[in-house]
Amino acid sequence: MTRPVCVLVGAPGSGKSTVGQVLAEALGVSFRDTDADIERLAGKPIPEIFIDEGEAHFRALERAAVAAALASHTGVLALGGGAVLAEENRAALIGHPVVHLSVELPDAVRRVGLGAGRPLLAINPRATLKHLMDQRRPLYAEVATATVVTDGRTPEEIAAEITALLTA
Ligand SMILES: Nc1ncnc2c1ncn2[C@@H]1O[C@H](COP(=O)(O)OP(=O)(O)OP(=O)(O)O)[C@@H](O)[C@H]1O
Ligand SMILES: O=C(O)C1=C[C@@H](O)[C@@H](O)[C@H](O)C1
Ligand SMILES: [Mg+2]
């Protein structure tokens, strides 16, 4: 069974896509992001999938993308911010090295800005982000084998801490 060297989970704006690329480069492995996989397979950006087919359809695509990536990717894998909502995805993560990139509301709000490209944050990003983060915090904790604080730190500092964790 192949397995990713590291799976990143966390709230929108926690930096999964950004830190994941830096980490993959530092480790000399490839980077994969299930959000990008879904967009490639669907042939359109995530906001358009939400508009055309709805969130339930997006979540079905996401479950398939998570299963496929966990089964085949050997580098760093970033999951979408809401992937942990599905019990199927949480079960699939058991036995994998899963790092939760934790972020508190002020930094998350600063990073996602007006929520461009994030359909769930299109209206009232701060309040929606707070709700999503409160709902998901226990789910990120459930799947994580390690948690790394990202607030006030650069992607390079965060990637260095994860590298140390993985090689410890
Ligand atoms: N540690 C950091 N410090 C400052 N800015 C950051 C940090 N990590 C990410 N960012 C910035 O925050 C924004 C969101 O980051 P990113 O897209 O990597 O988050 P994400 O966790 O992948 O979000 P999503 O769940 O929506 O895919 C980007 O503009 C990125 O440059
Ligand atoms: O937090 C979420 O539910 C999402 C986060 C993004 O990574 C994308 O997967 C999508 O915009 C949904
Ligand atoms: Mg991302």
Automatic annotation (TrEMBL):
GO terms for biological process: amino acid biosynthetic process; aromatic amino acid family biosynthetic process; chorismate biosynthetic process. Binds 1 Mg(2+) ion per subunit. It comes from the Bacteria. One of its GO terms (molecular function) is shikimate kinase activity. Its cofactor is Mg(2+). GO terms for cellular component: cytosol. It is an enzyme of class 2 (transferase). Pathway: Metabolic intermediate biosynthesis; chorismate biosynthesis; chorismate from D-erythrose 4-phosphate and phosphoenolpyruvate: step 5/7. Substrate binds at residues 35, 59, 81, 136. Mg(2+) binds at residue 17. It is found in: Cytoplasm. Monomer. This is Shikimate kinase. The lineage of its organism: Bacteria, Bacillati, Actinomycetota, Actinomycetes, Micromonosporales. The gene is aroK.
